[in-house]
Amino acid sequence: MEEKNEKWNHIFKRSISYIIVAALASALTLFIFGASQKNQFGKLRELKNVIDRMFIGEVDEAYMDDIMAAAMVASLDDQWSYYVPADQYQVYEEQHTNSYVGIGVTIQILENNGGFQVQQVEPGSPAKEGGILPGDVIVAVDGKYVTEIGSDAAQTMISGNAGTKVSITVLRDGQEMTMELTRQSILREVASGKMVTDTIGYIQISNFNERCAQETKAIFADLESQGAKAMIFDVRFNPGGYVSEMVEVLDFLLPSGVLFRSEDYLGRTQEETSDAACKDMPMAVLINGDSVSAAEFFAAALTEYDYAVTVGQPTLGKGYFQQGIELSDGSLVNLSVGKYFTPKGVSLAEVGGLQPDIPIDVNEETMAEIYSETLAPEEDAQLQAAITELQKQLG
Hints:
By secondary structure, the chain is an alpha+beta fold. It is built from 13 helices and 20 strands. The protein has 3 domains: about 15-85, no CATH class; about 100-185, Pdz3 Domain, CATH 2.30.42.10; about 190-320 and about 340-395, 2-enoyl-CoA Hydratase, Chain A, domain 1 (Alpha-Beta Complex).
C-alpha cells in the first residue's frame, strides 16, 4: 500500500514520521554541531546518565536512538535530508523499486484517524480485482475500525506476506462494504499511455525509479505505431527518482549533447550526455508544483533543447541530490550531498523552479481530481492546452 498525504507531497514522509516528533527534540542535539571534537557527545552522555539514574518510567532505548538521530538530521534545516528508522527501511526500499507486498492502493490518511481515502488503485492488484474504487474510504481492517486502533496499526494490519488474506471494509456512498483480499507482490505501473487524438500520444510517468525508462520507451514505441506524430509527457505529481532512469529517457528523446550536470560535496562535477539518435516530433510536458527533482529536470532538458513546450504550473525547484547511507543498526540517513543543474547549468532551486511556457493554473479540487485520475480528459485544462499547442505545431 502506498500512501500520499492530503497535499499529495512528493517527499517520502511517511517512512520518516519520527522527524515530526524529533523536530521537538532537535534543541537537545543542536549542541553536537557546535561542540568541540573532544566533548561533542559530553552533554548527550550526561543527559543519558541522568535519565538512566533518575527517570521513574520505562525507557525505550531504540526509540530514543531514533529520536536523537532524526533530530540531528532535522537540525540541518534541509527539507531533502531525512532519517529512516530500521523498521521503516523496507518501505523506503520498496518505493525505489516500484514494488511492494500489499493490496495495491494509494491512500490519503483522513483527519482524526477516520480511515484512509483511496486515491488510486493499481491495475491488476487485489484491490482492483476486489472492487475497491478511488474515493472509497477504508474504515476497518479484519473487522477492527481505524478510529479504534489508529492509522499506524491499521496500515500494519493491511501489510503482510504475499498469499495471505486480509478483510477490508470500505465506506462508499454512505454504505459499508467488506471484501476479502489476498495480498500479493505489486509491481507499480511506472508509465502508462494512450492516444488523446488521432495524431497525439500521451504518456504519464509516475516516477523515475526502477523500470521507468523501460516502460516509457515501450509505450512511446507503441503510440508511434498507433499513429502518434506528437507526444505529451505528464510528470505532474512525479516525485523524481534515479538520475540514471531520467537520463536514459532523455537520451532516447534528445540529440547529442549534455543532458544533466551535477556537483558533489567534494566539488567534483559530472555531465550526463546523449548520443545523436533522437525523436524528432513536437512534444509537450505537463508540470505542476509536485513535479520534483528528476521530473523537473526532465522537463527542463526538453525545453532547453527546444524539443518540448511546458504546460501547467511552476515546479517545486529542487537543487540538491541525496545519497542514502545505511547505518550499523539497519537504519538509514538520506543526506543531501551535492547540487544538480540543467543542461545549461541552471539551478532550479535558485530560480524558483521551472516556469511553464504556457501557465495554466487549477484549484485544489481540480488538483485532487488530476492526482486521483478521476478528472475527465476534456475537463483537464492543462492537458487540453497541451493538445491545442501540439495541434498548432502539427498544422
